[in-house]
Amino acid sequence: MQQPNGSRIIVALDFPEAAAAFDLIGRIAPDQCRLKIGKEMFTRLGPDFVREVVARGFDVFLDLKFHDIPNTVAASCAAAAELGVWMINVHASGGRRMMEAARERLEVAGARPMLVAVTILTSLSGEDIAEVGFQGTPEENVLRLARVAQEAGLDGVVCSPRETGALRARLGTDFRLVTPGVRPANSADDDQRRVMTPGDAIRAGANYLVIGRPITAAANPTEALRRIAAEVSQASA
Ligand code: C5P
User: Fold this and answer.
1) What residue spans define the domains of the chain?
2) Which residues contact 87 (CB under 8 A, 6 or more apart)?
């Protein structure tokens, strides 16, 4: 069952094995944050791991970024929904029909997870997207794909915190913006390049912040989460 909670922080559970993930999960409560399970942990540990985290009362963002023909993506989204997760995602570049099929299949299932789209991966530069045939800047493509996602009835997009302001201004207040690339002012950037602090990302219009290593690799993850949560509530006020 989904546990409603007000947290805007989604902690990325990027661990090589389950024990480390459960160690962290054991130290935090479901009303302090939501959790993201990505391709690495899902591929290693499978749906049982997801069910276990959900059973512990956490809202789970299952970050599998589906991208395939409409029927396959719709069926995969239905399978993800059966796990009781709170949010799932697809690639917007899979097209309008793929996104509509996913949304429609979830609606048939009744209580559905939030469905968001990845636009242009933040790891891709202007040259990278030109090489695979996209015209225009990454920002122009992000906006175009986000509009298609909105028209297809999706709930929001995953975007860089730097794109949040422009997307919020153009896509309205109801469209959810989920942003990774968030770093507290005093922490390492790791391999993230264009980062924003939690407070600035919220003020720019983000609904949810995906944060991994500043919490998972902290000497005291509970304290790191508490500090970030305080910054987020101050920025939300
Ligand atoms: O440790 P860190 O805070 O960088 O983790 C960010 C999480 O968000 C990782 O799980 C990463 O895969 C994910 N992510 C990202 N940038 C994107 C999409 C997802 O960092 N554009």
Assistant:
1) 9-236
2) 34, 59, 60, 61, 62, 113, 114, 115, 116, 178
How far does residue 192's CA lie from ligand 1's centre (Å)? 8
Confidence of residue 170 (pLDDT cuts 50, 70, 90): very high
What gap in Å lies between CA 143 and CA 145, rounded to an integer? 6
Architecture of domain 9-236 in CATH? Alpha-Beta Barrel (3.20)
Q: Ligand 1: does its nearest atom lie under 6 Å from the Cβ of 192?
A: yes
Best probe residue, ligand 1, of 24, 67, 210 (max atoms within 8 Å of C-beta) = 210
pLDDT band at 111 (very low <50, low <70, confident <90, very high): confident
Write out pLDDT tens, residues 117-157. Answer: 999 998 899 999 999 999 999 999 999 999 999 999 999 99
Q: How far apart are CA 103 and CA 112, in angstroms?
A: 9
Q: Is 36 noted as a catalytic residue in this protein?
A: no
Is there an atom of ligand 1 within 6 Å of 211 CB?
Answer: yes
Cα(179) to ligand 1 centroid in Å equals 9
Whether residue 5 is predicted with pLDDT greater than 70 in this model: the reply is no
